[in-house]
Amino acid sequence: MGWQKVLNEYLFKGDERSEDMLIRMFAGKSLVDFSYFNSLLSFYSNLKYHVMPSYYRYSSPLLGFLHPIIQLMYGIEWEQPAIVAMGLAQAAVHEDNMKKFLITAEDAAKSSSTPMPQIASLLEEVATDNKLSTAARMSDGNKVRDGVFARAFDEMIRVAAKVKVEPEELEERTVEMYNTAVYEAASAAIHPGKEPRFDFFLM
Q1: C-alpha distances in angstroms, 99 versus 14, 23, 26, 47?
Q2: What are 94's strand-pairing partners?
Q3: Can you give the pLDDT at residue 10?
């Protein structure tokens, strides 16, 4: 079929199956067992050049937040069918534990006619909301699931519902998103007296 037609059929068609896959693209917990993880480590260790990401050496196979969509975006950007397939495969073995949030936020966004504000203002809104900004704790196994969703779900929906991009503004909003991500990452990486470091997930 070609990877473009595969994505239109299994991810963007809008039926129950494709909606389920789209939600799993953002999942935070994998259903795979340690045999998959071990085979992944073996694959990287047998390559001629050492390219294994450092986090694979120290991460649990159950921690895969956003990994399916990250792989998919790499595959699309570089037009690599095998990487697109890997992203779809990762989504297929992940739980749909973002389903309630994504659907609730989407429904809330559809019910509002207010244009989307600047992305940076949404970050500031989260930072100035005491319940939201303190919802995640170091003791949480998953800061999103056990922190934000458990302690400030309605508040997060209020902010997420403001995110809606019209087709004609897609390119502009994509540039804005990129710039804001760099701004946010820099604010987290720079601290007086410390050497600036950007962790991989801030990409």
Answers
A1: 15, 6, 9, 37
A2: 30
A3: 96
